[in-house]
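INTERNAL TRANSFER SHEET
From: sequence group
To: structure group
Subject: Tyrosine recombinase XerC

Please process the attached sequence and return the structure record in the designated field. Keep the field labels unchanged so the import script can parse them.
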Amino acid sequence: MKWQNALNDYKYYLKIERGLSNNSILNYELDVEKLINYLDTNNSIISPINIDYEQVQAFIYDASKQLNSRSQSRLISGLRSFFNYLVFEDYRKTNPLDQIESPKIGRKLPDTLSIDDIDNLINAIDLSKEYNGVKIGERNRTILETLYSCGLRVSELTNLKISDLFFDEGFIKVTGKGDKQRFVPIGTNTQKYILIWKDIRTHINVHPEHKDTLFLNNRGKQLTRAMIFTIIKDLAKAINLNKIISPHTFRHSFATHLLENGADLRAIQLMLGHESITTTEIYMHVDRSHLKDALMEFHPRR
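Return from structure group:
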């Protein structure tokens, strides 16, 4: 089908020209597939090539019954991007999403952990725990320490390589969204835990494809994102933490704690790997006391 060729071309465009990660490309693809499944379910001969505004509107209305405002907005944005590509490549003349407005959503402030929360989570790890001879307790402690001390995304953590460690210089090389690389400072305490894990790692029968991957499962392969979520979820349950947390919560906490302690917003942006500082500015809304402190310290009429 012509639209299938268009979708394959679109995925290639997202990867090569826009440099998006595989996870981001998958999300864009899922947006289109939701529309296709809707059309198939309704026995329609319509495809993305010839669908019109009313038909797209009917799909959005149907999908909105199961989505909150934020998810609706993301779906509309993903489809708008796809149809913009179809117009650009002359698959069709107009974008049927041009007349559809995204729902108004407030800016969601990130959830954060206190320093005590983070200490309690790490202290709850059973360091003696082994699986098939692998000390996964030590590994899990190192994972949480690295997430928090370097502010990494979960995919950046799972993709971290041994060759990315530059401890003599006090940095690690991180590959972020769109394969963009940055150097992030790493403290001596976290370096210590990574070196302990590296020593344990030498006793694992490492899969040939993951010889350079830092964090491995007991089968010698790269850890999955889902496994990191599970580790954190189990620890939160163990300490009766009354919060829903994820690996990203450690990243938010990293940025918030830096800001609270007087770090420059531009420095935080570089460490997080945000392309625009407006993305980093969301942390200014988490603790407004930092603004007052800045005014009292630096304004000439304070």
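Handover comment: The chain has a mean pLDDT of 85. Residues 151 and 251 are 4 Å apart (CA to CA).
Transfer complete.
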